[in-house]
Write a structure and sequence with these properties.
It is a single chain. This protein has 16 helices and 31 strands. With about 575 residues, it is α+β, with helices and mostly antiparallel strands. The strands form 8 sheets. Strands 3, 7, 8, 9, 10, 11, 12, 21 and 24 form a 9-stranded mixed sheet that branches. Strands 16-14-15-17-20 form a 5-stranded mixed sheet. It has a 5-stranded mixed sheet with strand order 28-27-29-30-31, with helices on both faces. The protein binds adenosine-5'-triphosphate (ATP) and magnesium ion.
């Protein structure tokens, strides 16, 4: 492709609202443009890269036995009512009506659609297993669309759904797709870590998120053990248990703590360390109250708490509800003498003689003890793991990181097939629910993550597999016929060889602009025809990734470039 015949509107500066490097570079390199908040158009070069990510995904999904199909974007309300997700999705779902008033949504995901297909079409165990997948546009009215393609409201997803006859079958299918995911991201040039995850609103049990470590762009907090590789999303992360505290139980005392409400204030006022205090937090889970207790120096994880009760909605109780239930205001509440379900974190159960609110404004209790003064209904892990906590598997101090979730895999089991009554006839002649898995990859987010991982201050450094072109020819002075003629010759020769080549044939810009744009666009190899060519017929080949420059004789350039490209692909396929 000739630069003058394609459309690459590069920008010197990124628009103000782009915070993230990948977002800035995608705009500056003319890969995409914003239409509305979280809604983008792909321009020619961006589209080429996007198509390459799709191609890699297709190849690996097909190899793993996936069958590509395409569901509609517009989905009828009825199937969502069957699973209860018409309401659960809430405002994140784009809803619409047709002229007759029938309700629909723009699909945020397609479990309902695929189960609706399977229950009508897959009848016998003989037809199983089946994995269907599609690459399709999804719609989610995210509360905070940001970071460009990372969290968009309209975005491309590869979503796959598997149907097996039994758990063993699901295990096999899950592993196949899990491995396909590893290859997909590797081939795209991404370094991902599969982390254990909470399966969230989608339901089911086992789940993994594939994350790219990025402290700046990452929105998923996860813990990582540098020794044994244990990795888990903060909502699923565990740490080694705390040790039991020793000592005799002391008599409970009520003490005045005027104006001391937060853990910090109470700790300072009483001169007692935070880890001897217990934080009491009143929550409402699907309409039922739960008092959650965590150690004063810990943070509660709401998702862990919610999942514990199999809840769908969780919110902190209102000030009024707190007052009505405990007789005190937030900051003075505690577990002693309240008539509400209590969930204590495991660490709290190891504590002795601790401090809690007294359920009376301005007062706290000291020397409180579990068993003697109150009894929690459940003792479980509901705290956030922190950096430095010990690994649950090997005891090494854990690290805390942020990651970009580019894909996720779930073992769903029968959650959806039961809700939608989707059954098949098994070997034993009995009807059984399909055992399902589901597997997503954010295509645009993957592309953005690639740029986030591969850039420098000059621009993008594309991995060859997803670069818009493999090589860029840069004739520095088009008015010099020797230079432009050679460029033209190489351009045709490269194309004949099947290479994907872009030639910066602009006549109206100087060498400086061409160099800057080439580094910004980040095509992996630059073939520069200029000064060295005029001097001794040598062509400079620059590797954008390493910055390495090699002088190559004109008649050897094609072979040199071809070899380099092959090496680059091989490195990604290893
Ligand atoms: P997140 O926690 O980031 O919102 P999710 O758990 O809602 O993600 P899934 O429903 O599992 O995501 O979707 C599968 C994949 O689709 C994700 O792993 C991610 O790569 C991508 N994805 C999800 N939401 C968005 C979005 N708003 N914009 C771009 N990609 C997205
Ligand atoms: Mg989401």
């Amino acid at each position: 492709m000739r630069f003058t015949e394609t459309f690459v509107p590069t920008l010197r500066e990124a628009p103000q609202d782009a915070e993230l490097i990948s977002h800035k570079l995608m705009l500056r390199a003319g890969l995409m443009r914003k239409m509305a908040s979280g809604i983008y158009s792909f321009l020619p070069l961006g589209l080429r890269s996007l198509e390459k990510v799709k191609k890699i995904i297709r190849e690996e999904m097909d190899k793993a036995g996936g069958l590509e199909l395409l569901f509609p974007t517009i989905l009828p309300k009825e199937i969502w009512v069957e699973t209860g997700r018409w309401d659960i999705y809430g405002n994140e779902m784009f809803k619409l009506k047709d002229r007759k008033g029938r309700e629909f949504c723009l699909g945020p995901t397609h479990e309902e659609a695929v189960v609706d297909l399977a229950r009508g079409e897959l009848r016998s165990y003989k037809e199983l297993p089946k994995t269907f997948y599609q690459i399709q546009t999804k719609y989610r009215d995210e509360i905070r669309p940001r970071f460009g393609l990372m969290r968009a409201r309209e975005f491309l997803m590869k979503d796959a759904y598997s149907f097996d006859a039994d758990e063993e079958g699901l295990e096999k299918t899950y592993n196949k797709i899990f491995n396909a995911y590893k290859r997909i991201f590797k081939r795209c040039g991404l370094t991902t870590i599969p982390i254990e995850a909470d399966s969230g609103a989608i339901g089911g049990k086992v789940s993994h998120e594939f994350v790219v470590i990025s402290e700046k762009a990452g929105e998923s907090d996860f813990v990582y053990c540098p020794k044994c590789g244990y990795a888990a999303n903060i909502e699923a992360a565990k740490s080694a248990d705390a040790e039991e505290e020793n000592g005799e139980m002391q008599p409970v005392e009520k003490v005045s703590t005027p104006n001391a409400k937060t853990i910090e204030e109470v700790s300072n006022f009483l001169n007692i360390p935070k880890k001897k205090l217990v934080k009491s937090l009143l929550y409402k889970i699907d309409g039922e109250f739960v008092l959650a207790l965590v150690r004063g120096d810990d943070e509660l994880n709401e998702v862990k708490l919610k999942n514990l009760f199999g809840g769908k909605f969780i919110s902190p109780a209102s000030e009024e509800e707190v007052k009505n239930l405990t007789g005190a205001q937030v900051g003075s509440i505690g577990p002693v003498g309240v008539n509400v379900k209590i969930a204590a974190d495991k660490r709290v159960s190891k504590m002795k003689n601790f401090v809690t609110g007294a359920n009376e404004d301005g007062y706290h209790l000291i020397n409180v003890n579990i068993g003697r003064d109150f009894t929690p209904q459940v003792v479980v892990d509901i705290r956030n793991v922190k950096a430095g906590d010990l690994c649950p598997k090997c005891g090494t101090p854990l690290e805390l990181h942020k990651g970009i979730e580019v894909g996720q895999t779930f073992k769903l089991g029968t959650v959806y097939s039961k809700k939608m009554n989707a059954k098949f006839l098994d070997k034993d002649g009995k009807e059984k629910y399909f055992i399902m898995g589901c597997y997503g990859i954010g295509v645009g987010r993957t592309l953005a993550a690639v740029i986030e991982e591969h850039n420098d201050k000059y621009g993008i450094k594309w991995p060859v597999s997803v670069a818009p072109y493999e090589v860029e020819i840069i004739p520095l002075n088009m008015s010099d016929e020797d230079i432009s003629g050679t460029a033209e010759f190489l351009y045709k020769d490269f194309e004949k060889e099947g290479m994907e080549v872009l030639m910066d044939d602009r006549n109206d810009v100087g060498a400086g602009v061409k160099f800057n744009d080439a580094d910004l666009l980040g095509i992996p190899l630059q073939v520069i025809i200029g000064r060295t060519f005029k001097k001794d017929r040598k062509i400079e080949v620059k590797d954008r990734e390493s910055g390495e420059k090699t002088l190559v004789k004109l008649n050897e350039v094609k072979e040199f470039v071809k070899k380099k490209i092959t090496e680059k692909y091989n490195a990604l396929n290893e």
